Amino acid sequence: MFASLISSWRIPMNKLSLAAVVLAASAGTAFAGDLPSTKAAPVAPIVTSPWDYDIGAGLTSDYLFRGITQSNHQPSVSAHGEIRYNWTADYQFYVGVSGESIKFTNNIFPVGSPALELDGFGGIRGTHGAFSFDLGAIGYGYPDSPTNRVQNAAYTSSNGIIGLAPRNPTFFEIYFKPSYAINDALSLGLNVFYTPSYLNTGADGEYLSGTVKYTLPGQLSAFALSGEFGHQWLGKLDSVYRGANSDNYVYLGDASGKLPDYNYWNAGVSYTWKFLTLDLRYYGTDLSRAAAYQLVGIPTVVNGTNCNYADDRFVATLSFDLTSKDLK
């Protein structure tokens, strides 16, 4: 019976012990819940400005425009600036200006060449995966160019030829430049340009070219090989610039006023270190010297046989390019 009592007493004790454990656990839980929170405050998102800019300058041994010298085969300096607005991560609007030192001694500027070409440009760029494009317009300006429509009496060369000059050769082109990245190293591109009045002469012009660029792998990734092959189509001049009459006035183009079409190419290698780029490139056209004379017209050249403005050239260019990200 005593044993029976002992047994009956042990059961409540076990229940009491279990209740004590539960109570202690619940008390501990309540205490932890009363502690102040140590969770970190939320971090404010970083706001990135959609505005960006690009500035740069360069020195080249010869300023060429589609294979034709704009600096009389002499060195030229250039500078540019561009403001960009990133509408989304894939679309960017931009507007900019550039300037290049030039020197013409031809029928475009027989009396004296302006020292500066001043260009303005703008457009939109877009990216869709490996495909990207650039759509815009560019205007080519020549401050201090002749102001008369035809300036034919102020200059006579040693061989008696009188040079003519447009009133203002400023003109513009619209362009579309798509490209496709085959991989991280190799990309292909197209350049499409159109102007209704090349050099403000009334001759329409279309230019189409294909480009390729290959960036070397590994430790040679600072080097890139690139090239371009294109064709320039040009129409007929306004009648005031056409042909050669009995007074030996020299006009651009052939007797019908047609400017010559031609092929153009370049190939070279570039090396980029941070924001500096050295480019070594060979340029060429299939223009004969006589055809080049029809296109640019050197007054001091008899029959155009010595017009070397479109001769093949090796050109070295050193340039730098900085964006707002580079300066942060």
Distance between the termini: 92 Å
CATH architecture field: Beta Barrel
Which class do the helix and strand fractions yield? mainly beta
Low-confidence stretches: 1-33, 149-166, 244-251
Helix content: 10-25%
Query: Mind describing the biggest β-sheet?
Result: 13 strands, antiparallel
User: What integer value in Å does the Rg equal?
Assistant: 36 Å
User: Can you say what the CATH homologous superfamily is?
Assistant: Inverse autotransporter, beta-domain
- Helix tally equals 2
Sum up the overall morphology in one term: globular
Q: Give me the strand/helix succession.
A: HEEEEEEEEEEEEEEHE
Portion in beta strands: 35-45%
Number of strand segments: 15
- Provide the CATH top-level class: Mainly Beta
**Residue-averaged pLDDT:** 80
Tell me the domain tally.
1
CATH topology: Porin
InterPro entries: CHP02001
Signal peptide: 1-32
Pfam families: Gcw_chp (PF09694)
Keywords: Signal
What does this structure look like?
- The protein has a single domain, classed as Porin, CATH 2.40.160.160.
- The protein is globular and about 85 Å long.
- Helix content is 12%, strand content 41%.
- The chain has 2 helices and 15 strands.
- Strands 1, 4, 5, 6, 7, 8, 9, 10, 11, 12, 13, 14 and 15 form a 13-stranded antiparallel beta sheet that branches. A two-stranded antiparallel sheet has the order 2-3.
- The chain has 328 residues and is mainly β.
- The N and C termini lie far apart (92 Å).
- Pfam families: Gcw_chp (PF09694).
- Keywords: Signal.
- InterPro entries: CHP02001 (IPR010239).
